[in-house]
Amino acid sequence: MSHLVQPSVQPLVPLLDPKYYYSSLFVDAFTEDLVDLLRTFHDQYTLKPPPRHAFDIFKDIWRQKGWNWIHLKELTDAPREAFLDTCFRIFVTHIACPPFHENANGVLYQIGALFALYTLYFTQPSVASPKIWRQHHISIPIDYHASLHALPSLVSSDLTHYVIHVLSRLLESHAFYIIPASDLEPFSPVKLPHSILKKVPILEKGKSGRKNKQQKGLLALEKLKRLEALADGGEPHPVDADDDALASYLALKQEIADTVPSEDIKAAEDETMSRLRRVDVKTTEKGMETGREGLIRAEDAAISPSGLLGLIRSH
User: Fold this and answer.
1) pTM for this predicted structure
2) Spatial distance between the Cα atoms of 51 and 44, rounded to a whole number of angstroms
């Protein structure tokens, strides 16, 4: 008699995509934390006189900033490989190409990044249950490797033995995996961050749909109040602001009326009326009433003492 297979009671553990550790979400935040670590190390070591030995200062800052818990960040193999690869790559870059900081000793930033690389590499858990993935080699371009070997000659005498000891430990452990020069872009992915994630702006809520009865009632009351204000003699409609142009035109009109013979003005008015009537005939034939009101006003003005020029008044 066969037995039914019992369903598994172990829940599936959600895994973080390894690409996250190559994205701007992680790279930018990690770089900011590293710069803060290096800046603090620089500031404390440059006190006069230095309070303690260089690596003791760095070790205390490493713990105070919470970097001693960094190995608990990721425990799954594939994401952990991407995580450590990104961390070591950023450390190596800061050793070979330290960021520029005004009024700061760039060599101290390089030494701090070297101490961080050394500490992260040698504090990887070697005995754990379950076993945790461990990175045995740190990829480093050959030109960065040359800069690393030249670092002891750049530091002051009180730091030389620290740098030599740390480099010797790393070289004896065969920690470095030398790759082509950095200008050949040997890393994979080529650039960090590999993908940039931008914040999505929160869109404002759109306008509401059809208004309800209460909203319609309030809108009608508001319109009624406006009509009542106009009926009670509220503010008149704004007039044209070109009063100066109107006054200039009226003065010019009066000057023409005084200088041009009345016969010439009468001939011009007759020609204007003739054209208006021809336009009226054509629009009437097409069934359009456009211009009829203007023609009536022009005919009334033509028989008035002031003529067509009387259509332009002061107000």
Assistant:
1) 0.59
2) 8
